[in-house]
Amino acid sequence: MVSELSEIVMWLALAGGAAAAVAALYGHYYALPGWLTGPEICRLEDGGCSVLFRSPRSALLGVPNASLGLALYALLAAGLAVHVPSWILLTMTIPAVVMSAFLGRSLIVNGHQCRICWLGHFSNITLFSLLLARTIVWR
């Protein structure tokens, strides 16, 4: 039962993370509607989150973070579908959790609200936590 519930939550986290990454990637190139971003960010130029998604912190070595997120979620989904060992999938989530910690701290320190960002960060930590539990406990 616990394993089935964790499987459902994991797929929901993957879907949430992928949706956040798609929205963030869209925001990298176009203005997002204000309801996706949050009231603080909406007051910034060009729809708010567009500013965040075009900042220097929005890309790693020139690749938008959202593209990296989409690749991660696709690989994790494929890995779950073909029953790749949990420790391999867990290892894949570590860079995402580190990036989420860094970017989440930046949002807090700068007083920014970004619903899309927090959905992605929450998805990353959920995936990491469930895969860690699966690796350690539910072998």
Give the helix proportion (percent range): over 70%
Write down the overall geometry.
Answer: elongated
Alpha-beta content class: mainly alpha
What topology, given as strand order, has the largest sheet? 1-2
- Strand tally: 2
Specify the biggest β-sheet: 2 strands, antiparallel
CATH class: Mainly Alpha
Secondary structure tally, helices: 6
Q: How many structural domains does the protein architecture include?
A: 1
Specify the oligomeric state.
Answer: single chain
- Span between termini: 14 Å
The CATH topology name reads de novo design (two linked rop proteins)
Q: Write the element-wise H/E pattern from the N-terminal end onward.
A: HHHEEHHH
The overall pLDDT average reads: 83
Radius of gyration: 15 Å
CATH architecture: Up-down Bundle
Would you write up a description of this structure?
There is one protein chain. The chain has 139 residues and is mainly α. It has one domain (2-136): de novo design (two linked rop proteins) (Up-down Bundle), CATH 1.20.1440. Helix content is 71%, strand content 3%. It has 6 helices and 2 strands. The protein has helices spanning 2-29, 39-42, 49-52, 65-81, 86-109, 115-136; strands spanning 59-60, 63-64. A two-stranded antiparallel ribbon has the order 1-2. α1 runs antiparallel to α6, α4 (65-81) packs antiparallel against α5 and α5 (86-109) packs antiparallel against α6. It is elongated and about 40 Å long. The two termini are 14 Å apart.
Describe how the helices and strands are arranged.
Elements: H1 2-29, H2 39-42, H3 49-52, E1 59-60, E2 63-64, H4 65-81, H5 86-109, H6 115-136
Antiparallel strand pairs: 1-2
